[in-house]
Amino acid sequence: MFRFAHIYYFYFLAIIPVLAGLLVLFLLWKKRTLARYGDWNVIKQLIPDYSVGKPIIKFLIMSMVLASLVVAMADPQTGSRLEKVKRKGIDLMICLDVSNSMLAQDIKPNRLERAKQSIIRLVDNLEGDRLGIIVFAGKAYTQLPITTDYAAAKMFTGSINTGIVATQGTAIGEAIELAANSFGESKHNKAIVVITDGEDHEGSVLEQADAAVKKNITLYTIGMGLPEGTPIPVFSGDVQTGYRKDRDGQTVMSKLDETLLQQVASVGKGMYVRATTSETGLSKIFDDISKIEKSEIEEKQFSDYEDRFQYFVALALILLIADLFVFERKTRWMRRFKPFEFDSQ
User: Fold this and answer.
1) Would you call 32 helix, strand, or coil by DSSP?
2) 298 domain residue, yes or no
3) Are 304 and 81 in contact (CB under 8 A)?
């Protein structure tokens, strides 16, 4: 097997045609400048060692040097052997509420940002587990399909905001259903973690929790916020302009619905944790999830690649040495061989 480790270095090859164009312009300019001093045939007699072809040959050599170095930087690699790698872990789907109520600041800096920070810390502690992310407000969408690519998980988590789902609301039941279906036909142990303030506006939450349990999925819930409620800030850009109000002009208070989340966790045979100003509770839940027996998740064949850039570095050095022996002036045999001479007419 063959591959390049850093293919973006090939963009440097675009320099070669640019330099070629500049060389052509320079040679034409040089010829026109010499022609000012008299007839070109006469001038050639006065400078018999002048060669048009030698600069072109040297340019071709230096272009090959540059191309060789670019290929070396791209790091060509060949697969030397195949080995089997087995992972053990569980399948974990996180359902994150991104409704406007998650901007409430009873948990600093706000509910959503604290939840995202905890998810990223959770990813740093995963080993062999597969992770997926569902975002939901009035609708639920897959933000990250289940994967073992933890770098992608952190990147996608960092990009989550309340504008990612246009429809407002809190469709917890739909999020649980989507998460349960996202596991596919996997026979591994599975868990769903729902992070929300619990203000469900769509219903059918307990029914979906029960359906997930029948698929051997454990459900955990994390409550974001305080039961007594807090106003939802409104922003214009990065500047807070006030708090969200209802049609009567009253400030909307977002209250944590602990009862619902406790019921979901109970039906889901998991546990409920309320987030505090110091932690979201995700670490407690993950400690419990870690006790779930981990099964073999995948068995893949990975090629062990070996670098081959040194061959192209050696080629570049050889070409540089060869360039030292190509002189600008004509040699004795080149005076008889004139493949690059311009037509004097």
Assistant:
1) helix
2) no
3) yes
Question: Can you read off the two tokens belonging to residue 159?
Answer: 């990009």
Domain range spanning residue 11? 2-80+305-324
Confidence of residue 342 (pLDDT cuts 50, 70, 90): very low
Q: Please report where in the chains the tokens 């959770």 appear, as a residue.
A: 122
Same domain, 231 and 100: yes
Distance CA 263, CA 272 (A): 9
Token digits of residue 43: 């001038």
138 within domain boundaries: yes
120-160 pLDDT per residue, tens: 988 988 888 889 999 999 899 999 999 988 999 999 999 99
- CA count, 13 A, side-chain hemisphere, 62: 14
Asked whether residue 167 falls in the same domain as residue 274, the answer is yes
What SS3 state is found at 244?
Answer: coil
**pLDDT tens figures, 51-110:** 667 778 888 999 999 999 999 999 888 866 656 666 677 899 999 999 988 888 888 888
pLDDT band at residue 3 under the 50/70/90 scheme: confident
Indicate whether 338 belongs to any domain: no
Q: Are residues 105 and 164 part of one domain?
A: yes
| Residue 273 within a domain | yes
Domain count, the chain: 2
CA dist., res. 295 & res. 87, Å (int) = 8
Q: Verify that 150 and 26 share a domain, yes or no.
A: no
143 and 272 fall within a common domain: yes
**CB neighbours of 192 closer than 8 A, spacing ≥ 6?**
92, 93, 94, 95, 176, 179, 180, 212, 217, 218, 219, 220, 268
The answer to whether the beta carbons of residues 169 and 175 sit under 8 Å apart is no
Which of 132, 140, 157, 131 lies closest to 99 in space, CA to CA?
Answer: 140
Count Cβ atoms below 10 Å from residue 16 Cβ, excluding itself: 16
